[in-house]
From TrEMBL:
Pfam families: Chromate_transp. Keywords: Cell membrane, Membrane, Transmembrane, Transmembrane helix. The chain crosses the membrane at residues 90-113, 125-145, 157-188, 208-229, 241-259, 279-298, 305-330, 336-357. It is a multi-pass membrane protein. Its main location: membrane. This is Chromate transporter. The keyword Membrane applies. It comes from Brevibacillus choshinensis. InterPro entries: Chr_Tranpt_l_chain, Chromate_transpt. It is found in: Cell membrane. Belongs to the chromate ion transporter (CHR) (TC 2.A.51) family.
Amino acid sequence: MSASASKESQERKAGLSHSLWEVLQVSLKLGLTSFGGPMAHLGYFHEEYIRRRKWMDERSYADLVALCQFLPGPASSQVGIGIGIMRAGLLGGLVAWLGFTLPSVLALVLFAFLLKGLDLGDAGWIHGLKLVAVAIVAQAVLGMGQKLTPDRKRVTIAIAAAAITLLWQTAWSQVWIILAAGVIGYFLYPHPQPADLPELRVPVRRSVAVVSLLLFFALLIGLPLLRNVASFHGLAMFDSFYRAGSLVFGGGHVVLPLLEREVVPAGWLPKEDFLAGYGAAQAVPGPLFTFAAYLGAVMDGWYGAAIATIGIFLPAFLLVLGTLPFWAALRTNPSIQGALVGVNAAVVGILLAALYAPIWTSTIHTSIDFVPASLLFILLVFWKAPPWVVVIAGAVGGTVISFWS
C-alpha cells in the first residue's frame, strides 16, 4: 500500500471514529433528556439533529419518520437508528440506539430490583403508578387522534380498528388490522407525486439490507418453532419479546397489550407488577420499549433484562437497516403516502383499545380511582407538567387513597 493510500485510510478511520463519537454524544444527551413518549422524541430529534446540527434536511427527516411509522417497532428509536446509519454507517446506527436507550434501561432495571425487595401486596403507591398509566395513555390517544384522525373517514378507521382489536385478540390481529387499514388508505387518500425530493444518502449496500430483512423473517418464523422443540426459558423469553417488537405498530404505548398477553397469562409476572412498571416507565426519558428491560429484570435479573431488551429492539434495527436503502425510491410513490394515512388512523384505534383493556379495566374500579386519574390527566394535558412530576404525584395520590379507603 502506498503512503498516500495509507494516509487516506487512516483519515477515513479517524473520520469514522469522530462521527461515531459524535453520534454517541448526541444520542446519549437525547436519551437522558427526552421525556414525553415517541411523539415528543421526534420533536427532540428534529431540534437536535435537524435544526441544530443539520445532519439531514427537513424533507428527508419527514420521510424517514414516515417510513419508521409504517414499520412495526418503536418509531422514535427507529428514527434515531436511521439517522445514526446515515451519519456513520451500520455502527452509527448501533451507537445511536445505545446512547438513546441505555439510560432508561438502567433506570428501569434498578426499579425492578427495588420492587423485588418489597412486599407489594396492595401498596398504595403501586396503584398510583397504575393511575398514571391511565393518564399517560389517554394523553397519547388524544394527541395522536388530533393529528392522525382529523376527518370522519380516519375517525371511522380508528374506531373500527379499536373494535376489532378488542374483539379479536390474537398475536397476529394487529398485523391484519394494519394491513387492512393500509389498503383502505390506498383507495381513500391518493396523493400527488412529490416533486424535487432531496437525495436520501444511505451508506449501506442493498445486499446488506436484503440479508437484514431475511434475518428478520427467519427469526420471526423460526423462533416459535425452536421454542416448541427446546425447553429453555431464555429462548421462550427472547421469542416473546422479539415477536412483540416485530408485530407492534405505533410505538411504545401500543406494545402494552402485546407484552401483557405474552408475560401475564404465562405466569411470568403478576398484572400488578406489570402495570406498576409501565407507570414507572413514564418517569424516565428515552423509548418506552425499554419497559421490556423492567419486565426481564423482574423475571430473571440482569440476564432477563438483557434478553428482553435485545429481543424487543432487534426487529427495529433489522427493519431499518433492511428498508433504508430502498426507501429513496419508494418514498416518491403516492400509493405509499396514501397507505400511511390509513395505517396511522388504525394506530390510534389500537391505542384506544389498549387504553380500555387492560389499563382501564384493571385500574379504574370506583369513583375514588377515577378522580385522581382525571386530575393526573389534566396535569399532563392542560398544565403541561413533565411526566416525572405526574408519576410522583400519582404515587403520592395512590398512597393517600390507600389510607382513605
